[in-house]
């Protein structure tokens, strides 16, 4: 159901029709002529003159007369709505005691009364003809809980005050990421009554150890301290706070990566008890791991535009791990890919579009976005790319590190230049734990999702160590080709060759040259031996012919640029 303004209006109109149908059925069961279900108004008159009169007469017959209780059979005999409740479980009245049957009768009447109470609330929708007027009426008169952003409150403040909008309580979530002025405006969305504000309670929920509001003007940010939220100001000046001392989002091992930033942060009991937290991540030896990524083709971070940082090796590695997890059976919507720079975000999206975005066996991750944008959200598995290889950059801000480490529930896999980040003093508490584990990715390819192996338990399957991105890309490519061959879907979807194949393009060209030379000297009826790339494409072409294979078998350069390697020939 749409829970927006017009979604609520549509729900009210649909619910009104359903309730009027119930009124029509009740009218028919009582044998009352006319059309009581025409509008909410006629239904109200029907309830007042027909339903209430029958109920009052019934109560007068079966009520307790002095010290003697009426016969228990009278409760069911005189009940006027027997036919209406014919679709209820029978018998309605058990006949065991007077008190029990009277409670059932009163419950039936409460059900009928609730129908007409709701219709009375919906009566205004018959008089207000436009959707806008109906939505305003629901907002001011009927809504018990109203959700909006601080920005929307600022934009619509004049309209809300004009409507006579009233509220007693305000709950602000992510209050530490809201500007001071944006925090103040929602307090003024109503006119005072008798010179006093009607507001009785203001609750702010936030984490001042995470990222502050985004201020793009550096002068305002640095010299006016405008990035300080009102929540953070209250904490700094000593306003009493209620500090939460237990988390229930992530595994205890993942919580250790950031709980050093908080005072006495522990874990809720369900983190230790629920199976999803105690079960290992299928196909992966560790629940979190820092994976060292060296230069790919001699390049680490790049900067095609000022401050637009990208790292092709990390981007390909992240996408390869995502594809590997999906091939094992992980739902793609339970995996999110995060990075610390916009340039890397766009590069990863391009690679996903190119390699697996439209592949039905893999698909797309839940989100590909930046750490800053993902604050306040979570997912089961997070793949994080730190991008930089020359300088630490803005990850030196510990608040950004806390956000990055705390987004995952079950698995966190970080791709970075370890030699750079492990020497950063501000990041030491987290990276000392990350570097305590191997810096090469450890996978268990024969362990499908989901697994019964417990977290930290020695796997019964063979563990394979991935030392670099080209090895991982080739492994995923071969794994995919084997999968579609064994499932008899080989012809349905081809996977683009991994980036490591680009390095072998010169060798492929030499093989093509040798094949062309053989075709000139060998008769047309002679057999020819296909190249390794041809064998992977599983096509049979008469050896006397030379053709260019379809696009799925092209050796393509990684990234968003055009293909650079020549097509394989058969």
- Total helix count? 23
Overall number of strands: 13
Using the coordinates shown, work out and report the CATH topology of the largest domain: Rossmann fold
- pLDDT under 50 segments (min length 5)? 517-570
Strand content: 5-15%
- Main sheet: strands, sense, barrel: 5 strands, parallel
CATH class category label of the largest domain:
Alpha Beta
Mean of residue pLDDT?
Answer: 85
- Give the end-to-end Cα distance, rounded to a whole number of Å: 55 Å
Descriptors:
single chain; 570 residues; alpha/beta; Rossmann fold; two-stranded parallel ribbon; 10% strand; disordered C terminus; nucleotide-binding; mRNA processing; hydrolase; spliceosome; acetylation
Description:
The chain is α/β, with parallel strands linked by helices and 570 residues long. The chain is 41% helix and 10% strand. The strands form five sheets. A five-stranded parallel β-sheet has the order 5-11-10-8-9. α12 links the parallel β3 (246-247) and β4 (266-267). α15 (312-328) packs parallel to α20 (469-486). The two termini are 55 Å apart.
Q: Briefly, what is this?
A:
This protein has 570 residues and is α/β, with parallel strands linked by helices. The protein has 23 helices and 13 strands. The chain starts with a helix and ends in a 33-residue tail after the last helix.
